[in-house]
Design goal:
UDP-galactose 4-epimerase, domain 1, globular, Rossmann fold, homodimer, alpha/beta, NADP (chains A, B), SDR family oxidoreductase (chains A, B)
């Protein structure tokens, strides 16, 4: 099968391509070709599967049509301007996250002639906005985003469901939890500390915690996220009915529970590298974020996340540190 | 104040313009000018308020910018391709209902310079799709439309909330119940019988009932709908917070209750003009429609609908038949 990955140069995109090459197949069908697309040209993967890499602007006229002209059997649409940038640059966010998505969906529709690929779209828990139900966000809670990014993702979900209903493609939208532990350098995202307080100490560096330990949030590892994508690519979508967008399972943990897990996995010396430095701006932003979910539908459909924060930390140590804890 | 009405030639649009001229003011501010827009040129209203009538395509380049160039203080956006047509003509539905709405919102944003009109958008209960909660659709139920029309309205709601949050305009979206009793000729809409079984007998004609009397639905009169629009135009939107889209109150009635009300208001001879002729296609379509709602938020914010189907029938007799029942 021919697989198209949009957003292939991002953290999730690169890990997904690695998994596709390692598996060599999706749902029992061998992978014969990859097309990897992003705003910056993705790195060509090694291995025996032919892979084209393409840099471009998905919202530009004709770009999406070119990408689907060879009728890829499976499309992963991960491409997006992130939350902070979509909020800072209104026009760019709508152009990439809404127009880009719509151009892709339209290009697929206009191929016609029975073409109906599986399309996996990464949405986000940012489609939800406070106030939330006290017992967590259930599968029938309304989407009232409080950011332009969340709005664009919620619109993408609606389009995906309608295009799927009209049989233009076989779509599934997956709302990712906050991905933790994100590998790489610290970034300026307000949510950065959730990963930073684990990642920096495990790399022997101090981390700043800007919020109280009572803050609760919804996490899944990068490895779990790739698992969601692979399951969405191969599952029987007839089981979704008309409701094609799913909140993914995750792990609800307080910052205090994150730190206790780090202490259990890596010891006091590592955990003591976290410095408390409350930041009122971040505290206020985080108050509007979802704390916990009841993702029953996705669980019943076979999606699986970690069951403890210790496990999330061990995934990071295995996948990013070659299994080695700091001495 | 200068008021722009988009969709001014439709049934609701014409009644709204009549009410605006009769009132002469909105929320205590005198109306100084009207601009009436539709795909076909709206009829120029009589009266002392200057009114421009414009025919055009809201999605066409530059049309929306022209309409908002004079900075109307209040905009009613009622323009839409109806459900059946949006389903039959996919491209036309998205062009008018999504692109047209987005062009309007963008045109307002691009005026800039502190321009921030009140914008009232008519959405629909078609944003909801079965299966529904057994106790009715509450204010936090998710929007999973089962038509392209419902999808386009749900996207309009999301855009309205985001543009309002960004302070580009002061928006409010109102989800109208099925409007009953619609005046005029019978139409081919699957929902047509809800009005037809009341309207035709009151005009001395036979009506066909294609569904069982147990079918429940959610109704409001045209007069109530105009009341919703006027309240949305003048209310304090600070009370909405970030959640700018509201399910309007209505009356839940079975077809049997509709007929019993007709019998009470107009007598046996009129009610006996309803002929039962089950239509399996319509029965199946209607099964996917909402039956009842709990519209607590809108009620708490002062929106009011009829409290009995007898009242809905009396509104029709007063507003369309000059108060005269058939002899």
């Amino acid at each position: 099968m021919h697989i198209l990955v949009l957003g292939a140069a991002g953290m999730i995109g690169r890990k997904l391509v690695g998994r596709l090459l390692a598996d060599g197949q999706v749902g029992g069908r061998p992978i014969s070709r990859l097309t990897l697309f992003d705003m910056v040209e993705p790195t060509a993967p090694g291995g025996s599967v032919p892979a084209d890499t393409v840099a471009g602007d998905l919202a530009a006229a004709g770009q999406a049509a070119k990408l689907v002209a060879d009728r890829p059997d499976l499309i992963f649409h991960l491409a997006a301007i992130v939350s902070g940038e979509a909020e800072a640059d209104f026009e760019k966010g709508y152009r990439v996250n809404l127009d880009g998505t719509r151009e892709l969906f339209e290009a697929i529709r206009l191929v016609g002639d029975g073409y109906r690929p599986r399309l996996v779209f990464t949405s986000s828990i940012a489609v939800f906005g406070a106030p939330f139900p006290p017992d967590g966000i259930h599968d029938e809670f309304h989407t009232t985003p409080l950011t332009s990014y969340g709005t664009q993702k919620a619109i993408g979900e609606l389009l995906l469901a309608d295009y799927s209903r009209r049989l233009f493609f076989d779509g599934i939208g997956i709302r990712l939890p906050t991905i933790c532990v994100r590998p790489g350098k610290p970034n300026k995202a307000a949510s950065g500390f959730f990963s930073g307080i684990i990642r920096e100490p495990l790399n022997g560096q101090e981390a700043v915690l800007p919020v109280p330990e009572t803050v609760r949030h919804w996490h899944a590892s990068p490895r779990a996220a790739i698992g969601f994508l692979m399951h969405a690519a191969s599952m029987d979508t007839a089981r979704l009915g008309a409701r094609r967008n799913l909140t993914m399972p995750g792990l609800c943990a307080t910052v205090g529970e994150q730190i206790a897990a780090l202490r259990r996995v890596a010891g006091d010396r590592v955990a003591n590298l976290i410095r408390r430095e409350p930041d009122e701006t971040i505290i206020r932003i985080v108050q509007g974020w979802p704390e916990t979910f009841s993702a029953r539908r996705a669980e019943a459909l076979g999606f699986r996340a970690e069951r403890s924060f210790d496990e999330i930390i061990r995934v990071y140590v295995e996948d990013e540190l070659g299994g080695r804890l700091p001495a």
